[in-house]
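For the sake of transparency, this paper describes our internal protein records without simplification. Because each token names a local backbone shape, the row as a whole describes the fold. One such record is reproduced below, unchanged from the form in which we store it:
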Amino acid sequence: MFKNCLVAAAASLLALVPQPAAAQRLILPGALLLAGYRATCGPVDTMIQPINDIAAAYTGRIILHPRVLNLPRAQQLFWYTHECAHQIFGPGEAAADCWAVQQGKIQGWLTSAELSALGASMRAFPGDANHADGPSRLAAMNSCYAR
């Protein structure tokens, strides 16, 4: 009887502790697996949560929309590496795109065919105050890949 009361009390206390939303998950630095590849960005952690973008970067944290996890491997790694580049180089989108493309080529997870597939998914991006439109981004990314 006493054991049952303890279990019930513990369950009641746990119900009071704020729990993250089901689709929100914090992954510690070095523990993120994307399509079987250990993705790491130094001491930066990763949050998987729905946001109004495919991914975002804040000081010390990369945020990936859960839909990133359903993309082909190279695209998962591109978006993660793009956000990691923001941790290194700051807010410049062109620099983040270029660095992600070059890292993908160097590390072998981004072939020219995979870059074309990524480009097809980005072609319709309209652009905004911080991002060039899809065709402009693709031209710059192809140039970075060719270097």
Summary: The chain has one domain: 18-146.
